[in-house]
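Journal club prep — side note

Before the paper discussion, L.F. wants everyone to see what a predicted structure for a comparable chain looks like in token form. Sequence:
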Amino acid sequence: MLRPRINIVSHWEIEVTEEDVLTALRDVYDPELPVNIVDLGLVYRVAVAPDPDAPGTFSGMVPRQRVEIDITMTSKGCPSHERIIEQVRNRLAGVREISATAVNLVWEPAWHPERISMAARQQLGID
């Protein structure tokens, strides 16, 4: 009889994933719309990498990760871009396993309303 294998991961082996970052970023809202930046489709890329030089990476400590994010705005003239980027940095600074966050503002490809999630469309009354 086959028995399921159980992998026990100690607390110091847990790493931040792209999904963890996206979940945290769902707390960041566009100040002009009642929708978070993930569901608005403003987050284009999330990269997570180990940070061997960060404090807290020693034996028995939680490993620290570097995060790099590409985001865009709904328009190039968005007056809230600095505020949104600051909110992203502040939100991820609150994640213990993240040692540093780089936020890149990108314009290609251009944002389009098709990037809005179905849940956000319903919230905004678009569909």
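L.F.'s comment for the group: Residues 1-13 have pLDDT under 50 and may be disordered. Keep this in mind when we get to the figures.
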